[in-house]
Amino acid sequence: MSLIDNSRLLPRSGNGTEGAGLAQRLHLDMPLLIGLLLLSGLGLVVLYSASGQDTDMILRQALRLALAFSVLLVVAQVGPDTIENWSPWLFGLGLALLIAVLVLGDIGKGAQRWLDLGLFRFQPSEIMKVAVPMMIAWYLSESTLPPNRLRVLAAIVFILIPTLLIAKEPDLGTALLVGSAGAFVLLFAGIRWRVVLGGLILLAASAPLAWHFMHDYQRQRVLTFLNPENDPLGAGYHIIQSTIAIGSGGLYGKGWLNGTQSHLDFLPERKTDFIFAVFSEEFGFLGVMLLLALYLFVIGRGLYIATQAQDTYSRLVAGSITLTFFVYVFVNVGMVSGLLPVVGLPLPLVSYGGTSMVTLMAGFGILMSIHTHRKLLAT
Amino acid sequence: MARNKHTALKDHLRELMLFQRRTVAAVIVTVVLTVVLVGRMVYLQVINHDHYTTLSRNNRVNIVPIAPTRGLIYDRNGVLLAENVPSYSLEIVPERVPNMAKTLQGLRKIIDISDDDIAHFKDMLKRTRRFEGIPLRFRLTDKEVARFAVNRYRFPGVDIDANLSRHYPLGPLAAHVVGYVGRINERELRKLDSSNYSGTSHIGKVGVERSYESVLHGEVGYQQVETNAQGRVLRVLQRTPPTPGDNLYLNIDVKMQAVAERAFGDNDGALVAIEPKTGAVLALVSMPSYDPNLFVNGLDAKTYKKLSTSPDRPLFNRAIRGQYPPGSTSKPFTALAGLELGVIKPSDEIFCPGYYKLKGEQRKYRDWKKNGHGHVNLHKAIVQSCDVYFYELAQSLGIDRLHDYLHTFGFGRKTGIDLDGELPGLMPSRQWKRRTQHQPWFPGETLITGIGQGFELATPLQLSNITATLANGGHRMQPHVVHAEQDPDSGAMHIIPPDVLATIPKVRQSDWDDVKHDMHDVVHSIYGTARRISHNLKYTVAGKTGTAQVFGMKQNEEYNEEDIAKKLRDHALFIAFAPVDNPKIAVGVIVEHGGGGGSVAAPIARQVMDYYLLHSPEAHHVSNRQQPTSSTQRQRH
After folding, report:
1. pLDDT of residue B86
2. Looking at A64-68, B14-18, B106-110, B186-190, which range is the least confident one?
3. Which residue range(s) make up the domain with B191?
4. Does B195 sit within 8 Å of A231, measured CB to CB?
5. CA nearest B194 in A: which residue?
6. Pair A9, A376: CB distance under 8 Å
7. Weakly modelled stretches of chain A, pLDDT under 70
8. Half-sphere exposure of A36 toward its Cβ, with a 13 Å CA cutoff?
9. How far is B10 from chain A (nearest CA, A)?
10. Sign of the CA dihedral with B631 first, then B634, B635, and B636 last
11. What is the distance between the alpha carbons of residues A97 and A61, in angstroms, rounded to a whole number?
């Protein structure tokens, strides 16, 4: 099938404009880049309102975005082969750092993570967001797909070790992303649906066990999610207030800078994890549709890049990174609108804060590298 | 292993097909989940839009925390020591105030608001949600309440709030035990469970108020209230009542505490009385005391400066933090070490010429009695407090054994009392000296440790507890100030059980009896250093006097000559327990710059013991408190 598509892999003669040529030379994928830039721009607009028109904060966020896009640019220049060769090393490094965090002790845990959200969160778990899909893709692409049982089992172990280490930190949000990033690679590699279904059932069955190992505040969040009225002064307050903000936005929203819920300080964490509520209040249902459409566009482009990739490794990595991005969006919007428990994930590219943005852009850099380094297949 | 090109290509194609099928599945799942999100948005923003608009705009639903009522504190006989009295405070809801600077300025014109109040308010302003009320001034007078009520229309967002304020009806009496509450400061705020303290403005700062904060505080409640656009409460929608904190009953007998405090007169010092069987703290005195009510709502800088810089240091809890050389009060324990370790027998005699010399040293270690005690056995050494006897005993024991034995007894270690900030005192050893002073141990230092001087330090609480340990036959109890916690709703009492921390290994019962007998004669024989208190004594007392040398003035301020003379006087110490056969009370007293232990400190102890054994409710019925250990356990040691 890829042979048939060969014509598309040639430099496009039809739209060989200056811009496209420059983009190709810089190894950038224009549609994806535009999608990301639009989202970031929209993010700055909402942040301006959420921060109470704090220009300093906008400047800081813009600087972070600039840094993140530079990382994207740099990663895009690296060829997919090189990235593939780096995979196990990056994974090993990340694992070593994770264990170091565990051994060196209780740095940045509990309430501290909430306070310094995004700024001081420890790095190793961030590395794992890209290192785990890279590692699993590298490992599975060693042999023909679908992988045999032994390989699947080994891959699951590779996923579980960092995921559990991160969950123990405790950083449930990141653990969820890392775990699903690894799982997506397995899914794209073609493990049987039976196995997928079995895995899901096992996961649901282990919920009581997880409850046993949870920290008090994590249990509290789950309970609060089940019944927000239970704790209206604490975590339940977030959910009550954010649903009021979203609901009062209506079809057209209250208008930019006019959200009463957010500006009267009813809404907590409104610059970071709960920024979606500010957006919904001010831009309404139509604004939300636009935002979701932009996210879907980026995701669609990512999946397209994955299907066009030339080797197994690239396909698996590109697919996994894209779907992980969707998890980000789904979990954040779901949690802010009261569909999911509060796990503390930012809205990608919109929430204030820098650490996760850099990893995110590194991932998109890999996508661009995959798409712009394609060669004609030697037949 | 080697596959031909054809199969490789076939594999490749198959992989690609597989991948594309999976991508389709992923797209489907993504779309379905997005539809779920969109559905949720439709539900919130379109279907229920009106409902949420009402919530957000017309009538704001606020959630207001309700602070729990703080537990009361009683003494052992139910005398109230800390209560909550209704009071009015001025509260500001920041988001309703159009111009904060102007509002504050206006308020200062009609109500007395100090700079401290403003500073504290601004502190809180930074860390509170803007729709939550922040107190500006506590305990408004009726006049101030009236004046504000008339002007209230001028100050949107400002209101009078009725609440409960902590009050200590007995003032300075037992202030060092009960402690006080004060406004929560920034450092405390960071450590607190912010949800549970969202309605609370005060927290225990010292004493029982602090060490039992979690018991006294209770659980926060909250109410959902509807407010109008100006923020005034229209009605309460729902109310979850708070759980009040537990009441505390102390072991302290506050009448006895008063007797003890009065007994000190103008002297500074401390006294701790303990029930030997249980470790119950019956009285804990640190003189001078202070009025804890001053601290509840913040005191002005001038008063605070006066309290904190006074040379008498009224805020300093000498009973648990004052570290003094124990002097001769350590001698009975040194004697016990000598007997139990087989270094001396009670009948052994030495000759005291009034000084002691180490072999090869010219220096004379002097006795307090210039001409010496002559021939001295253990009995005489304790009764008359012969220093030379204990120089020699310490020399034979050596610092290592001396340190180990006294440390086991409780010298140089915290007693574990249920009050914060206790200091451990100091029982010096070779290792300690090498660690802290980087010097070897000198033989002369062993001698002076034998008479409780030199590096050795003990707190009045320690002296009292060590005496209790001797009195009860070697059980080192954890001292408890609090007797019981009481659920205010059901009235159910949870009594805190006595706690044996350790039991001193006993070689011979006769050794213990000898030492107790010698201490008995300190009071009851005509040669005893504390014979003065034996007059008209209706029960038996075992005691030991002590004097601690004061080496120099610590304060640099100028005093008149009389004061300086007093500052240089020795500290007077006395330890005692009574009755000797069945000890019900153990006392440790120190009078700063009091002079002699027998003349100044012992009479204070006697007044306390007299009250407890002859006049208190306890004196009339046999104590039915639990024994610390069963008899079988005791026999094992």
Report:
1. 87
2. B186-190
3. 63-250
4. yes
5. A234
6. yes
7. 1-20, 104-123, 215-218, 220-221, 224-236, 261-268, 354, 375-379
8. 26
9. 11
10. positive
11. 27
Query: What angle is formed at CA B65 by the lines to CA B64 and CA B67, rounded to 5 degrees?
Result: 145
The 10s digit of each residue's pLDDT in B367-410 is: 888 888 889 999 999 999 999 999 999 999 999 999 999 999 99
pLDDT over threshold 70, residue B8: no
What is the token pair recorded at B216?
């006294």
Q: Does residue A300 contact residue B46 with C-beta atoms inside 8 Å?
A: no
Are B258 and B240 members of one domain?
Answer: no
pLDDT at B142 over 90: no
ipTM score for this prediction? 0.87
Number of domains in chain B: 2
Tokens 């000759």: give the residue.
B351
User: B139: which DSSP letter?
Assistant: S
Asked if B467 and B577 touch (Cβ cutoff 8 Å), the reply is: yes
The torsion of the CA quartet A84, A89, A90, A91, rounded to 10 degrees, works out to 100
Q: How far is CA B274 from CA A199, B77, B231, B582, B608, in A?
A: 65, 16, 55, 14, 11
pLDDT of res. B627: 39
Helix (H) or strand (E) holding A208: helix A207-213
pTM over 0.90: no
Residue B269 has pLDDT above 90, yes or no: yes
Distances (CA, A) of A186 to A92, A152, A249, B62: 19, 8, 40, 48
Cβ atoms of A266 and B57 closer than 8 Å? no
Q: Rounded mean pLDDT of B469-474?
A: 92
Smallest Cβ–Cβ distance between A190 and the set B18, B46, B51 belongs to: B18
Kindly tell me if the per-residue pLDDT of B179 is higher than 90. Answer: yes
Interface test mutation site (partner B, options A185, A237, A248, max chain B beta carbons within 10 A): A248
Long-range CB contacts (within 8 A, 24+) of A20-25: A24/A372
Query: Does the structure show a pLDDT above 60 at B547?
Result: yes
Work out the pLDDT band at B624, boundaries 50, 70, 90.
very low
Q: Tell me the per-residue pLDDT of B316-362, one tens digit each, with 9 for 90 and over.
A: 999 999 999 999 999 999 999 999 998 999 988 888 888 888 887 78
Q: What's the pLDDT band for B569 if we cut at 50, 70, 90?
A: confident
Residue range(s) defining the domain that contains residue A80: 30-372
Residue of A nearest to B33 (CA): A330
Q: Same domain for B444 and B591?
A: yes
Is B19's CB within 8 Å of A246's CB?
A: no
Q: Which range, A222-236, B460-474, B527-541, has the best average confidence (pLDDT)? A: B460-474
CA distance A76 to A67: 14
CA separation for the pair B523, B576 (Å, rounded): 9
B370's CB contacts (< 8 A; 6+ apart) are B354
Question: Where is pLDDT greater, at B330 or B633?
Answer: B330
- Determine which one of B165, B286, B328, B429 is catalytic: B328
- Say if residue B234 is in the same domain as residue B280: no
Q: What is the CATH number of the domain that holds B125?
A: 3.90.1310.10
Q: Write the residue in A266, A330, A337 that is nearest to B33 by C-beta.
A: A330
Is residue A25 a part of any domain in this protein?
no
Q: For this structure, is B328 an active site residue? A: yes
Which DSSP string do the residues of A37-75 spell out, in sequence order? HHHHHHHHHHHHHHTTS-HHHHHHHHHHHHHHHHHHHHH
Tell me how many domains chain A contains.
1
CB contacts < 8 A, A to B, total: 138
Count of CA atoms in the C-beta half-sphere (13 A) of B18: 22
Beta-bridge partners for B73: B82, B248
Would residue B5 count as lying in a domain? no
Q: Say which CATH number the domain at B563 has.
A: 3.40.710.10
